[in-house]
Amino acid sequence: MRDLVVSLLFPLGTSLCLFALSGLALILKRPRLGATSAGLALSWLYLWSMPAFTSWAIEHHESDWPLLSATEASEGDVIVSLGGAFLTAEDWPSPDANQSVDRHWFAARLYHAGKAPRIIVSGGLSRHRPVAGTEAAAAFGFLTQLGVPPDAITQEARASTTWENAQRVAELLQDEDGSRLLLVTSALHMRRSVAAFEAAGLDVIPLATDPHWGRAGHRGIHRFLPSAGALADSSRLFHEWIGLAWYRLRGWA
């Protein structure tokens, strides 16, 4: 039920609701309401499908997290790399990585640059892939193939949300007062992640990777034409906004 409600708050879901209202208005012989609702639906869908507008909105959301190289990053006590990087079914632990795998790649670079002596990978079983392995297990395999020693990696394999990531990592570090975390996640996800980890009482140094804005590379008139990629990116942005609003409502941020 929660996923359905959240989906209806995304641009496509909201537009479909407005179109449904338009159809209902026509059935009830309210043509003006129907036309207004249909116009709003088309305008809202076009706005969030337009690469120029979506890129602007995402760049604004990500602007607090400048991208740094591993050598430019501050030093800390532990690197925390969040899950969400792998899609797979029964062929785990040989998962299909998505664009968020940059999180673990950057974590490995930070480790090899000597920025922290160990890495915590956080991510449990997906609600959508309950028969597969954990995100942490997949990340562990990926990091070891990038040359990170197995004994330098700790798996936190219970969390299924960003809030749980923060709580579980805090539990792992409860006996290590003053630990400075190099928090690695996608730039789009960083604002909500920082809020969750700071609410858990952790000292966080945010290190963003995988920026979304401008990724599609649209030029000229194509920046103003509807794009499925732009609509997908705007949905990710709304996911972050909704999640952050929920955290604030609960007093978590």
Brief write-up:
This protein has 253 residues and is an alpha/beta fold. It is 49% helix and 12% strand. It contains nine helices and seven strands.
Supply the key terms.
253 residues, 49% helix, 9 helices, 7 strands, alpha/beta, two-stranded antiparallel ribbon, elongated, five-stranded parallel β-sheet
General description of the model:
With 253 residues, the chain is α/β, with parallel strands linked by helices. 49% of the residues lie in helices and 12% in strands. The protein has nine helices and seven strands, in the order ααααβββαβαβαβαβα. A five-stranded parallel beta sheet has the order 5-4-1-6-7, with helices on both faces. Strands 2-3 form a two-stranded antiparallel sheet. Helix 8 links the parallel strand 6 and strand 7. Helix 2 packs antiparallel against helix 3. The longest helix has 23 residues. The protein is elongated. It starts with a helix and ends with a helix.
Helix-strand layout with pairing:
Elements: H1 2-9, H2 11-27, H3 31-49, H4 51-62, E1 78-82, E2 86-87, E3 96-97, H5 102-112, E4 119-122, H6 135-145, E5 153-156, H7 162-172, E6 180-186, H8 187-199, E7 203-209, H9 228-250
Helix pairs in contact: 2-3, 4-9, 7-8, 8-9
